[in-house]
Amino acid sequence: MYQHSDDKAEFSPLIQSHNHETHGDSDTGPASTTFAIVFTTLVAVSGSYVFGTAIGYSSPSQSGIMTELALTVSEYSVFGSILTIGAMIGAIVSGKLADYIGRRGTMGFAEIFCLLGWFFIAFSKTAWWLDIGRMLVGFGMGVISFVVPVFIAEITPKELRGAFTTVHQLMICFGISLTWLIGAFVNWRALALIGSVPCLIQLVGLPFIPESPRWLAKNDRQFDCEVALQRLRGASKDVSAEILEIQEYTELLKQLPEPSVLDLFERQYARSLIAGVGLMALQQFGGVNGIGFYVKSLFTTAGFSGNIGTIALAIIQILMTSLGVVLMDISGRRPLLMISASGTCLGCFSVALSFLLKDLQLWLAGSPMLAFFGVLVLGMQGNTRTMKCQIRVLNSKSGCYATVIHYPTNIRGIILLRHGSNSLGHNVRDISHKYEGIGWQLGYFSELARFLDCLLQFQLSFKLELNR
């Protein structure tokens, strides 16, 4: 069915009668949303919600943990940043896990780590318990960040795939925002136990959802593939054409050579690698998680009520993320990403400038922070993940390594921002000399990263959109 060209990564179909997409979906009829697809997606995105709670946890719990366990700033910085170390490890092993034990099994495996991590945090007596729990949650988070969007993309028809995959990012946003909201009213131990609830929901729901039909076909379980696909599409739906195309796609994958890390440095993958890794890395070098992990204390430093600022930011984040989901298919990925990147660059500059002017009482520092996050989640926060998946070539692992690179770039911002938060307020006389100016260095570096990210958007193809 396919002709191998001189370039080993390119295959062209000889027969066009089926009007195939590269992903191997059927065009034999309009797609319909079934209860099975909706329920399966909801169970899967429970993991996305866990992802969000892990990110949002450190901000509302900071004062309670530092007071009760007598942690220093350095110790709490380790607690905040060690999440990304665990996530980096999880992202590295996520691809192999998803291939060996299946998408559904991998999600359950990740949730066990998250559940143990939340229990370690909730019943911590020392900083070591906190760090172990945080790293366990991070490991599960790293696995979830890969397997959930892959699973959703594999179970949904192509006509509905864009809408359903955006639910992953929407639930991450809800997890962050609701954790900020709940954290304003409960203590840090109760908040950790609440964070374990979506883990339990997914673990209970996983036995009742089908495995990915594509993974089943890849592992020569054709009968199970047909049963799973029929269950997802509905009993009355004819899935024979889609089964055939999945089989053809699976055979095509088997013909491709086994990829390696060195393949990423071949010329044919250069643009995909630069765009995929660049989008993720520069987004994180902008310091978004460094701010998000300590947003409550930053509002307090800015002369704003920490609880009120966090609640306002949570509401804005939910509204703007929902708007971004709607605009993504209307305006396209690239224009929305460019607008959001430009606005985020300006917002990051405004946040730094507002702290500079705080002592002069010329600007309310809380407002630019609200604007920064609002513009960020409109496109940058979730759109980069979506485009990372869409720009990969068939036999390239650039998307996987873009996920891995997402996490270590967080560590610098999280540690430095916590140490440099006082210098952001320009009160350097109140802190030890070795930390003086770190906050401003972070601000300059973040601005450079945001600017480079904007430039990278212009290098993306105008035709870089999701095939329907």
UniProtKB/TrEMBL annotation:
UniProt similarity note: Belongs to the major facilitator superfamily. Sugar transporter (TC 2.A.1.1) family.
UniProt-recorded Gene Ontology molecular function terms: sugar transmembrane transporter activity
CDD domains assigned: MFS_GLUT6_8_Class3_like
Residue ranges of every copy of the Major facilitator superfamily (MFS) profile domain listed in the record: 40-468
Membrane-spanning parts: 35-57, 77-97, 109-130, 136-155, 162-182, 273-295, 307-328, 335-356, 362-380
Major location category of this protein: membrane
Localization, UniProt: Membrane
Keywords: Membrane, Sugar transport, Transmembrane, Transmembrane helix, Transport
A GO cellular-component term linked to this record: membrane
Topological category with respect to the lipid bilayer: Multi-pass membrane protein
Protein name (database record): Sugar transporter ERD6-like 5 isoform X5
